[in-house]
Amino acid sequence: MIIAQITDFHVRPRGVMAYGGIDTNEMLRRAVAAIAALDPAPDCVLATGDLADCGLPAEYREIDAMLASLPMPTFVIPGNHDRRDVMRECLGDRHRYLHQHADFLQYVIDDYPVRLIALDTVIAGEHGGIVCAAREAWLAEALAKGNGSPTIVFMHHPPFRTGVPAMDPMMCRTAPTFAPLVSRHPEIERIVAGHYHRPIVTRFAGTIGFVAPSTAHQVALDLRDGEPTRWILEPPGIALHTYGSGSGIVSHVVPIGDFGPIHDFELPADYPGQA
């Protein structure tokens, strides 16, 4: 099974740039085209939040049209830039799973060898996220129904610290019971997230925490205390999570762009170091 992950589109209404100079809509088109060109094709796509930049209906119409061009199912969750009610209203017809839960945009997909559990971490009006008692109870029930099947939990805000002082205050707040819940379920192969606009990997609660890069701008890596978040046009990217019965989940980061043709390693016989 191959799962593509895209995140943090920050799409604007047609013709409008994000932050005064980033064509996030065109960058999402390139990401979608890159996924559509993959061989073998992914079985599905996870879109882990901040789909829209301002939560506007015009932004979700752009997103809906672009994601509809993908030949495989796409599973979306909200981020702090999204608005739940607008997102469900604009995307709910094509993405019926958004109606699984009355209060939150969270759901379970049991159609693949890997279970997909979408966890809504949004706090309306705030940059950071939370897994409140109700959402943790829902997750516990969803995991209990999985009978130990390999699972990915995907959410917008990472529930773990990354060592980036400007970003970690905006992480997902959890109760002391959350990490033990995750630890009791070794079938959780990954907790994958977005929000930080950088590729990040860490150990967390007995599993692996993974943050995918944005399809648009990245957050400049700055490990100094007291510095604000700044954006940079490092190469955008997607993640590919591949699953096999002998390997479990293996995660790859794929930059988006034209980097020239692929070359075979054809070296002359006298090349230094030739085996």
Plain-language structure description:
With 275 residues, the protein is α/β, with parallel strands linked by helices. The chain contains 5 helices and 15 strands. The strands form 4 sheets. The protein has a 6-stranded mixed sheet. A 5-stranded mixed sheet has the order 3-2-1-14-15, with no helix packed on it.
Write a short abstract of this structure:
The protein is an alpha/beta fold. 19% of the residues lie in helices and 24% in strands. 41% of the residues are buried.
Describe the secondary structure blueprint for this structure.
Layout: E1 2-6, H1 24-36, E2 44-48, H2 57-68, E3 74-77, H3 84-91, E4 107-109, E5 115-118, E6 129-130, H4 133-144, E7 151-154, E8 172-173, H5 178-183, E9 188-193, E10 200-204, E11 207-211, E12 218-219, E13 231-232, E14 237-244, E15 248-255
Parallel strand pairs: 1-2, 2-3, 5-7, 6-8, 7-9, 9-11
Antiparallel strand pairs: 1-14, 4-5, 10-11, 12-13, 14-15
